[in-house]
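Please, structure for the following, as tokens.
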Amino acid sequence: MNLYHKLAIIPLLLLSQFALAAEQVDKTISSPDNLRLKVTVQRGEVKLLPWDKSEIQVSGTLDELSQGLNLMQNGNAVILEDKMPRSYSGNNSQGSDLTIMVPKSLKLYAEGVSANYQLRGLQGDINIQSVSGEIKASTLVDNVTIHTVSGDINTEALKGKLELESVSGSIQDNHSIGSVSYKLVSGNLTANSHAKEVAIEVVSGDAKIELNEVSSLKGQSVSGDLDVSLNRLTSKINLDSVSGDIELTLPADLNANININGGPGGDINNNLTSDKPKKGKYSPTSSLQFQMGNGSAEVNLGTISGEIELKKIK
């Protein structure tokens, strides 16, 4: 065999070895009532989808370094784990590719390192944790907690009590309903939400949020900017920043008492009404108080060395 033929065979051998390493998996077990499911997949792609059967089915391929898939039941608890070595290296392209079919109603805890999770149509207490993986979730209902360190979070039409948190990844939330809490350190938040209760905590990232009607809005920022647009307020807004700007866009027919504290070094720009901020007589602080409509709601804004701007919805 000449050198050309030998070189041509090498890629085929490598491909064959990879095919052998990427073990196929297809397992099914009966699902207990009041299912509590824990899923651990360190890296790769994982889909969690609902079906009408009282079974849990796992299909796909395992990580080339996987030591096997464990699927165990103890009472109403089921553990699904893609067993990996204690130490390994590699990226997501070398991970598992799994589709997990589960009953619609369950209590779920799923975790990974660089695993990307996709979830749709589940209902119950849903908790997803990943280090650098991306999490996509849609039409989840009830209690939903999603946390990443450097991964991104993308959600669509979640409903219930929602907690979305990322350290340095971004969060994009669309059409959520119920109550939602956003927490970021250095990531960015983009949201278009129908939630009635909203809480925002941002350290050095920026948040741009469009809200329909809220009864409660709380926001805090340190070195980050808050850009909030609101169609209707029925109760109360509290927004504060340190070294960050607050831009709040409100309807012209708002019924609320407005209280703004510019703090030391802060600026106030009111483009919502003709009311002007006042400067402190013996200090550099500025403030602004005025009423719109019957004053039934309350808007409290404050900053330290940031800018606060009120705008009118066009």
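Confidence is low (pLDDT under 50) at residues 6-20. Helices lie at 3-21.
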